[in-house]
Write a structure and sequence with these properties.
Strand content: under 5%
Shape: globular
Number of helices: 5
Order of helices and strands: HHHHH
Number of strands: 0
Length: about 150
């Protein structure tokens, strides 16, 4: 049996994450996968279009991506906090709180739109135009809806 430090560290990290996040582990994993795909397709787009890579853009992008995870963790916090506060007040909820799910879905939709845009801009001839159109419509709808709530 191989006991390499890398395997050991990955086992400890994944076990800790699974225990800490519980049912929310899937949300965190899905958001992480969407963020990684967006970053990778963004780099591909920058290289394919001749835009190049910029450390200033990368730094700004990194902090934006971190804010997505903070938003997701805040949704998880709200799920636990709302259930606890309502439970303390004697209100019994027969369902889980949906905050983390809503935040997770919103992040994944936005990242999917960005991934689609990156793929389209990288090689417009190979990306179906109907998908590009739908992504633009979805992005516009999300932006309109978020402007209405502000």
């Amino acid at each position: 049996m191989d006991h390499s430090p890398v395997k050991w560290a990955l086992s400890v990290a994944s076990g800790t994450a699974a225990a800490f996040f519980g049912q929310y582990g899937l949300f965190v994993a899905l958001v992480a996968a969407a963020v990684v795909l967006d970053v990778v397709t963004g780099i591909i787009k920058a290289k394919a279009t001749g835009e190049g890579l910029s450390s200033k853009k990368a730094r700004r992008g990194f902090w934006r991506k971190m804010s997505l995870f903070v938003g997701l963790f805040f949704g998880i916090f709200l799920d636990y906090a709302a259930a606890h506060v309502l439970g303390s007040a004697g209100v019994v909820m027969r369902m889980d709180m949906p905050f983390a799910l809503i935040v997770c879905a919103y992040i994944i939709i936005n990242e999917a739109i960005s991934i689609g845009e990156n793929l389209y801009l990288s090689n417009p001839d190979s990306f179906p135009r109907w998908i590009a159109k739908r992504l633009k419509v979805a992005k516009g709808t999300l932006e309109q809806d978020s402007n209405k709530t502000e």
